[in-house]
TrEMBL record, chain A:
One of its GO terms (cellular component) is plasma membrane. CDD domains: TM_PBP1_transp_AraH_like. GO terms for molecular function: transmembrane transporter activity. It comes from Halanaerobium kushneri. InterPro entries: ABC_transp_permease. It is found in: Cell membrane. Keywords: Cell membrane, Membrane, Transmembrane, Transmembrane helix. The chain crosses the membrane at residues 12-34, 46-79, 91-111, 117-137, 158-180, 211-230, 265-284, 290-306. This is Monosaccharide ABC transporter membrane protein, CUT2 family. Pfam families: BPD_transp_2. Signal peptide: none annotated. Its main location: membrane.
TrEMBL record, chain B:
One of its GO terms (molecular function) is ATP binding. Residues 7-242, 255-498 form the ABC transporter domain. The keyword Repeat applies. This is Monosaccharide ABC transporter ATP-binding protein, CUT2 family. InterPro entries: AAA+_ATPase, ABC_carbohydrate_import_ATPase, ABC_transporter-like_ATP-bd, ABC_transporter-like_CS, P-loop_NTPase. The keyword Ribonucleoprotein does not apply. PANTHER family: CARBOHYDRATE TRANSPORT ATP-BINDING PROTEIN MG119-RELATED, D-ALLOSE IMPORT ATP-BINDING PROTEIN ALSA-RELATED. It is a peripheral membrane protein. It comes from Halanaerobium kushneri.
């Protein structure tokens, strides 16, 4: 039905409007905000959170959650870091990193589907286990001195202008968008989140599709890990702490329902951009760090409230 | 407005995106009468009730109660005003006691704390009035659906209800529970309480209702005095044409001797034990029994929704181990479940996706899903089941109850399974749609498909089946051939289970 389609687009349109409003306000306060470099900066800053958030959206859509993304990121960082410093070809190292992320996600998925542990609890557990593994691998020390060629490959700039992480983010967004909207897997993800029992009774292999969804969360975290590793040049086993919260926030702002079944890649993508636009804006306009926390939290609550108001309006 | 009128609807119109659910509906309801609300699926019955009960605020026209125009902001205001509703999907909190559920939000207090003694005392008083044999301190989760419905009525009485409406209350009740409900409705009526009663079972209307208002396509058609009308007249005004209300076979029987499904000693403790029967090609095999006979558990196990403990499931001569619905589907078995909300459709998907959900692999071009083809496919089945509205992109949850049931049917019709298991296929569907579903069953067997049909409506199993399996408390007590069908026989095996003459066979 036309009306319903319009409504869906409207949701993402709402975030765009909020984004523009924010840009106008910050620009009025400090014109540097709208400069090309600053905009590039905003998008680049959103890359890490955006990659994780897009991944986590898949878990949330199935009515689950993945709290272990930050720790997954840490493992990928230190393992890939170790391989790189021991001279492995960067391309191969990148593939290994993505594979590790996928497998760690799959492991979460298996805990949830085979052992029937609730996603929140299962990934709360692996959040700690994965973090511990990252420490064990390096003995607690950071992995230093990433080779230049790897750093240029992942976080260099195309034509010296546009940072590569932006392409990685957009590329991942496009692929996952297609997965979600144009494959059976995508339909199943939505339908598992909407009514798992009815989906199972329709002869759908719910377990397999859930495990794949969590695998995808791991891939998002692994891509974020590669970007972070390349940008910093060192791999800390402490990396990524608290990243799950920013990722969930981006998804929620983007209209993903934590009850499952509702949300989109585009929404989460815009949610991540909005969050980093806000953070950069607060810095550019010289807002006190303490107030930055308050502003960020308020935006999350307001965005989700507006979403609620809007869906009520639609009901009537 | 005269003294005896309590509710008056005045040009009530309600528009949802794309549908006019109610179109200038005007009629009145008298105090202390049982007023039935009739109409096809999607006629607007539930919508009208939702307006009366404050669920929807945005509508045109007026609702008057005792001469005052009312506009409730939410269902709570309506309840406090004495307008209560007994939901079809019982909305109670299972982990709380009966008393806590009845007094929820209005618990008697002693200073700041809840006065539990008083709560249970008050609740028990109401339960006594309703002749309930459970007590205020019982946990709701241990009660049957019928008992839960009594709690909803008790809740209404706790709030001094003047008007109680019941939306398809008997759809999941046993026949004895239904009788109890009717007795209570009569008592409420004797106490001056007005009852609004929605049901697709017309026999019930003649047992219980004084007046019957018919809606069709959101429009008011007529209010009948039940005494002065007939079933056929009611049906005609609901559907707009003559429709039979009987379940009967119109085509010659089709079954062959070829066995498509053989069940041997199927057991799932503690539900059922030693179930054995054969399903023949082109046969409609009915399953009869009282509620609690575990018919649903048996068919769920055959399909793979539950996993058997012991026994054999032989499909087309192959002994298969069906562990999941996916296995069932791959062996050509489909189950249309009893509870459409929790098991049938997915609430955030549109009709095309819900209909295509069990066979998405058919709409593939390379790895991508072909949305166009999926929508085209759903259109074919939307036509076949005569869905209202006929829109593949409509969200299934926004359809009326009966139309949601049709979507679940369509999902399985669009797969290529050849053994269909229907669990209460006509639950909540209107008379016209019932006939369409019966015709559909006959079409399926005419195409050489085979059907197992669980139904609690005796006329339906008797009218449609070629043979009937009767169950009692998890045991198969008898298989009857269509030549020997009778309500008495079925009830005998469903209740007694014994069979003296056949024992030695
Ligand atoms: N929330 C909603 N959003 C959009 N359309 C709706 C919504 N609720 C009901 N409708 C539409 O309004 C019409 C009337 O629905 P209603 O539920 O009142 O029918 P009903 O008479 O109760 O039918 P049934 O016997 O099947 O329960 C239907 O066409 C339905 O699709
Ligand atoms: Mg209804």
């Amino acid at each position: 039905m036309l009306k319903i389609k319009k409504f869906k687009i409207f949701r993402e349109f709402g975030i765009l409007v909020a984004l523009f409003a924010m840009v106008i306000i910050f620009t009025a306060l400090n014109p540097i905000y709208i400069s090309f470099n600053n905009i590039i900066d905003i998008i680049q800053q959103s890359a890490i959170n955006g990659l994780i958030a897009i991944g986590i959206t898949f878990a949330i859509l199935t009515a689950g959650i993945d709290l272990s993304v930050g720790s997954t990121l840490a493992i990928v960082i230190v393992v890939v870091g170790k391989f790189l410093t021991s001279g492995l070809n960067p391309i191969i190292a990148i593939f290994i990193g993505i594979l590790i992320g996928f497998l760690l996600g799959v492991f979460n998925g298996l805990l949830i589907t085979k052992l029937k542990i609730q996603p929140f609890v299962a990934t709360l557990g692996t959040m700690s286990v994965y973090r511990g593994i990252a420490y064990v691998i390096t003995g607690g020390w950071p992995v230093l001195n990433m080779p230049r060629d790897f750093r240029n490959l992942v976080s260099g700039r195309v034509f010296n202008i546009i940072p590569i992480p932006i392409f990685i983010l957009i590329g991942f967004a496009i692929i996952t968008h297609i997965l979600l909207n144009h494959t059976r897997f995508g339909t199943y993800v939505y339908s598992i989140g909407g009514n798992e029992e009815a989906t199972r009774l329709s002869g759908v292999n719910v377990e397999k599709n859930k495990v794949l969804a969590y695998g995808l969360v791991g891939v998002g975290a692994a891509l974020a890990a590669l970007v972070l590793l390349a940008r910093l040049g060192t791999g800390e086993p402490t990396a990524g702490q608290g990243y799950e919260l920013d990722a969930i926030a981006a998804a929620a702002i983007g209209g993903t329902s934590l009850a499952g079944g509702k949300g989109s890649v585009l929404g989460t993508f815009l949610g991540a951009i909005l969050l980093s636009a806000l953070k950069v804006g607060l810095i550019v306009t010289g807002v006190d760090t303490f107030w930055q926390f308050i502003a960020t939290g308020s935006i999350i609550i307001i965005a989700v409230y507006l979403e609620h108001v809007q869906s009520q309006l639609y009901k009537k | 407005m005269s003294d005896q009128e309590i509710i008056q609807f005045n040009n009530v119109t309600k528009v949802f995106p794309g549908v006019k659910a109610l179109d200038k509906v005007s009629f009145k309801i008298n105090k202390g009468e049982v007023h039935a609300l009739l109409g096809e699926n999607g006629a607007g019955k539930s919508t009208l009730l939702n307006i009366l009960h404050g669920v929807y605020q945005g509508y045109e026209g007026k609702v008057l109660i005792k001469n005052d125009v009312i506009k409730f902001g939410n269902p709570h205001e309506a309840i406090q005003f004495g307008i209560s509703k007994v939901h079809q999907e019982v909305s109670l909190i299972p982990e709380l006691t009966v008393g806590q559920n009845i007094t929820l939000n209005y618990e008697p207090k002693k200073k700041l704390l809840i006065d539990y003694d008083k709560m249970h005392e008050e609740a028990n008083k109401i339960l006594d009035k309703l002749h309930c044999n459970f007590r205020s301190k019982d946990l709701v989760k241990n009660l049957s659906i019928g008992e839960m419905q009594m709690i909803s009525i008790a809740k209404a009485l706790f709030h001094d209800a003047k008007v109680i409406s019941l939306d398809e209350p008997t759809a999941s009740l046993t026949s004895s529970e239904t009788e109890t409900l009717f007795r209570i409705i009569r008592e409420l009526k004797a106490n001056g309480i007005t009852i609004i009663y929605v049901s697709h079972r017309l026999e019930e209307i003649f047992k219980i209702a004084d007046k019957a208002t018919v809606l069709r396509d959101g429009k008011f058609i007529r209010t009948f005095d039940v005494e002065d009308t007939t079933k056929d007249e009611l049906i005609k005004s609901m559907v707009g044409r003559d429709v039979s209300s009987f379940a009967k076979r119109n085509k010659p029987r089709r079954f062959s001797e070829e066995v498509v499904l053989e069940i041997n000693n199927l057991t799932l403790e503690p539900h059922f034990k030693d179930i054995s029967f054969k399903l023949r090609k082109g046969e409609i095999l009915g399953f009869a029994g009282l509620v609690g006979a575990k018919r649903t558990d048996v068919v769920r196990t055959i399909f793979g929704a539950d996993h058997k403990d012991e026994g054999e499931i032989i499909v087309h001569g192959n002994n298969v181990d069906i562990k999941s619905p996916l296995d069932g589907l791959e062996n050509g078995i489909g189950l249309i479940p009893e509870n459409r909300k929790t098991q049938g459709f997915v609430k955030n998907l549109n009709n095309a996706n819900n209909i295509g959900l069990a066979c998405l692999e058919n709409f593939k071009d390379l790895i991508f899903l072909d949305h166009e083809e999926k929508i085209e496919n759903s259109k074919v089945f939307i036509d076949k089941i005569n869905l209202k509205p006929k829109d593949p992109l409509y969200l299934t949850r926004e359809l009326s109850g009966g139309n949601q049931q049709k979507v679940v049917l369509a999902k399985w019709l669009s797969t290529n399974v050849d053994i269909f298991i229907f669990d209460e296929p006509t639950k909540g569907v209107d008379v016209g749609a019932k006939q369409e579903i019966y015709k559909l069953l006959e079409d399926l067997v005419a195409q050489g498909k085979s059907i197992i049909m669980v139904s609690s409506e005796l006329p339906e199993v008797i009218g449609m089946s070629d043979r009937i399996v009767v169950m009692k408390e998890g045991r198969l007590t008898k298989i009857l051939d269509y030549k020997e069908f009778s309500e008495e026989k079925i009830m005998h095996y469903a209740m007694e289970g014994t069979d003296v003459e056949d024992k030695e066979v």
